[in-house]
Amino acid sequence: MDGDSQRSLWNKISHIFGGKSEDNLEQVIMEAREEGDVEAEESNMLLSVLELGETQVQEIMTPRTDIACLTNEATIQEAAQCIQTNGHSRIPVYKETKDNIIGIIYAKDLLTYLVDPNLDPAADHVDKIMRQPYFIPETKSSAELLQEFRVRKNHIAIVVDEYGGTSGLITIEDLLEVIVGDIEDEFDAPREEDVQKINDEEYILHGRTFLEDLTEIGINIESEEVDTIGGYLSLQAGHVPAVNETFAIADWEFTVIEADTKQIHKISAKKINHSVLADE
Ligand code: ADP
φ and ψ at 263, to 5 degrees? Predict the structure, then answer.
């Protein structure tokens, strides 16, 4: 974006905030893109910032089942091992059940602790060094949370459902990913794509793939109750489907190819070709 374009986009934006225009921000950004005032990538980023305001934390958090956490009976040494094994630098601590998170261990606190000759990491428990968690409701706006993270200088929150149970965990990285796409930090394990294309009529899907993302490849499934394809197949079956269970939904045949007793991991999706079936 050159200086003139920046001024023209800025003029448009300041008009809106000055109440001089009835256009909404989204329209202005789209217009600026069509007129070549901003690059496609820049306009996507601006639109994502707006999207952040409409995104509830539950849509982007790490779900409860994927949280690496420790019981309050774990020792400091076990916490260090957990950080090393899982690669996360902050580990929630729970008492009795995951629904009762009472603290968070920070890797950098551990370092200070581990070099103190008066302490015994193999015997002392994690509650000696954990910090107070910050709890937020599932429905909180992600833009609001980003602002709070900045003010509080604390970049992790535990998401709770309306009954006080643990629903997930969210960090500033999850929020920034909405704006700038998937951020790979140097310690992140490479993550498999949710959708792997075999050809136009055949895909391998991760169970966590959002139903709304499937519309991009022509799979149109809507649900009020669940968000992911794995969740949808479990809902249809009434149980967690086992490997080789098959479902015909919305012109597609879904076959579970990897699952455990609690979750579907991988699914094959093949388009049902009605003309071939009719010929047979
Ligand atoms: P870290 O580098 O310690 O993993 P980030 O803030 O970079 O922390 O987060 C990277 C991703 O890992 C985010 O999606 C976040 O929700 C997730 N995450 C962070 N801590 C944990 C944890 N203890 N268990 C599971 N996921 C976590």
Answer: -150, 145
Could you tell me which of 86, 89, 255, 75 has the C-alpha nearest to residue 171? 89
| Dist. CA 151–CA 146, nearest whole Å | 9
CA distances from 82 to 9, 79, 86, 115, 237 (A): 48, 5, 6, 18, 35
Give the mutation target among 57, 62, 194 for probing the ligand 1 site: most ligand atoms within 8 A of CB: 62
Q: What angle do CA 161, 162, 165 make, to 5 degrees?
A: 45
For residue 132, report the phi and psi dihedrals to the nearest 5 degrees. -65, 130
So where are the chain's domains?
59-180, 195-279
**Nearest residue by C-alpha to atom 25 in ligand 1:** 67
Report the CATH architecture of 59-180.
Answer: Roll (3.10)
Ramachandran region, residue 164 (left: φ > 0; alpha: ψ -120 to 50; beta: rest): left
- For atom 5 of ligand 1, which residue has the closest CA? 173
Q: What is the CATH number of domain 195-279?
A: 3.30.465.10
Task: List pLDDT tens digits, range 204-239.
Answer: 999 989 998 899 899 999 998 898 999 999 999 999
| Single pTM value for the model | 0.69
Please choose, from the candidates 12, 15, 7, 5, the residue with its C-alpha nearest in 3D space to the C-alpha of residue 37.
5
